[in-house]
Amino acid sequence: MSIRKKISFIKQTLLMTKRVSVPFIQKPKIVLDYLQLYRKKGLTQDEYDNYEFWKQKENFRKTFLGLNEQRFYLDYLNPIKYYSLARNKYIAHKMLEKTGIKKSILYCYYQPEAKYIKSNENVSDLNGVIRILKEKKVQSCVIKTTESSHGDNVWVIKAIDYQETDAVLTRFDDNTLLLSSVLGKEPLIFEGVVIQTKQFASFNKSSVNTVRFMTTLFPNGSAKVIATFI
């Protein structure tokens, strides 16, 4: 660490201690406590401040996995970075299908470069998408790009009006658009609408609102839930 970075780090640490609600006489102790955690765990100042480490019990302080430690363990446990592969929604569909895990129905996979692939779900043009959706009698669906996340590039379609050379899609907010305007250079999947409870649907009507489980896998094959969040 350069001298300039060291000075900046010290300043930021002192500013962080000002926000800590302890008597002034205990401030030096807070600084030393943070510096020890920084050396041992790479704990950031925001983590120390936001999680109020000076109040936490020893078990929490030892088992907390901060941003810097997460990166180390992720690289160590996952050297081939398989999470990039699993992020592709079409590949995820096929993996879940192969293992028998329950999922939404996959109606169609639109891949502009798949002109020479013959399949009952893979198509490369507008006519192919319409043909498959008609054959499967699809009247509502969810359209997603295969590589996006956090609800980006998702169209929830509640009605489809098939035309002679196109289809009019009615979104959940009653706005309409042509199927041809959705299809472009990016691969898309057309899948079934997941029915949610009224409570979950109220959070965000345009997406499936899921409870995420953060887990850790032990060498003996057992798993432990670390945290859950929406």
Structure description:
- By secondary structure, this protein is α+β, with helices and mostly antiparallel strands.
- 40% of the residues lie in helices and 20% in strands.
- The chain contains ten helices and nine strands.
- The chain has helices at 3-19, 27-41, 45-50, 58-63, 67-77, 82-87, 89-99, 126-135, 179-182, 198-203, and strands at 106-110, 122-123, 141-145, 154-162, 167-171, 176-178, 188-191, 212-217, 223-229.
- The strands form two sheets. Strands 2-1-7-3-4-5-6 form a seven-stranded mixed β-sheet, with helices on both faces. Strands 8-9 form a two-stranded antiparallel sheet.
- A hairpin with a 5-residue loop joins strand 8 and strand 9 (223-229).
- Helix 1 (3-19) packs across helix 2.
- 13% of the residues are buried.
